[in-house]
Structures are given as structure tokens and as C-alpha cells.
């Protein structure tokens, strides 16, 4: 089993003290002991690989760092624009996309979204998505966690699509399969996942004007909370990032 990953503010060499919530999780939940391997990361690509040198109390351990590595940003970069699902399905989508390997997620308030991110509720929901990405990043042993952007409007999503090297909208009526779409070797891929009610004609038109074509995943129709994960896996395989 690979070494567990814990989040720190800064990755350094030498002896590092892990304390607070991360230290408590390492000591009291994971029950790490002296001599066990551990990885510390800042979530931005840097990782300190070492062993536990000492444990103190219930929330502090000392890590002797043997090596500091930097994981370069992968190419092409994959961003999923995720329409807001109902209930906790948004966190499920973020969790599984993070575990799969997505690079960024943009919450989107689509016209047909039942869920509305407004004021305090929106801030709390966004914080949950970001916390989910952090925990899933650690669980999947990533050194570079996906960024979770602020919630975007349709106009902002269109601008993001216009700047992409490949832009697509997942749509059950798409004439072409995503599995055969021409993909760039570098740059950015931006994929839009609509809400349970589907992408509206007006949104499709705006995204089409920005250069995003509609594509289908397959013969079955996936829920909005699973479509992004399936599409990310497909793109990672096709671009060689899973090679």
C-alpha cells in the first residue's frame, strides 16, 4: 500500500512537524507509528516523502523528510464545468472526479438547475466542494489537487470555453461520440456537464458560439453527478495521461 498523504502549508526538507487536524488524523485515526512512511504535500504539486520520526500526544508527529519531489502540471489540462446537482450529489461528483484525475472543476448555475447557490448557502456549498476536493486528493494520493473555482454564470462559462484548445458539451443528442473527438496533446480541455434537466437551447447556442460542440458519451444517459467522472476517465485514457 502506498504511503498516506497529508496536507501542509509548505513542503520543506529536514524534520517537519505535522500537527493540528492533519496531525490528529495521522495519529488518532490512521494511527501512524515511528518508522512508517508518509507523504506531505501542499496540494500544488510539491511532495515531501519521508518517515515518522516521533509521535507526541494525540495530534502531533515529527516527519524526517528523505526526498522532496515536484509533480509537474499534466498536459493537457482537463477542466469540468459541473452544473449544480441536487442534494449532496455535487460533493459526490467532485470526489469521484478528483479521484479520477480532473485538474479543475467549475460550478455552474445552469438555467435548469434545481439547486440555487445564493448568499450564505452558496458560500457553504462552495466550501464543501473545496473540502471534498482536498480530502479526495489526499485519499487518491495526489500531490496536485484540483482547483474548485467560484460558481460561474453561463456567460463566464462561454468565455472559458472560448479560451480552451478543445471545448465540448456533454449532450445526449450530440451527433459525435467524445471517444472519437480530436483532442490536443497540450493546452486545455474544457468539458461542460449539464444539470438533470439538460442544457437549455439558449445555453447550447451560447456555448456553440464560443466553439464548444455537443458530444455524447455513449448509448446510455448518465446522471449529472457521474457524467463528469466518466468523461474525465475517457479523456485521461485518450490523451495518454493514464498511459
Automatic annotation (TrEMBL):
Residues 76-235 form the Ribosomal RNA small subunit methyltransferase E methyltransferase domain. CDD domains: RsmE-like (cd18084). It is found in: Cytoplasm. GO terms for biological process: rRNA base methylation. PANTHER family: 16S RRNA (URACIL(1498)-N(3))-METHYLTRANSFERASE, RIBOSOMAL RNA SMALL SUBUNIT METHYLTRANSFERASE E. Specifically methylates the N3 position of the uracil ring of uridine 1498 (m3U1498) in 16S rRNA. Acts on the fully assembled 30S ribosomal subunit. This is Ribosomal RNA small subunit methyltransferase E. It comes from Streptomyces tsukubensis. The lineage of its organism: Bacteria, Bacillati, Actinomycetota, Actinomycetes, Kitasatosporales.
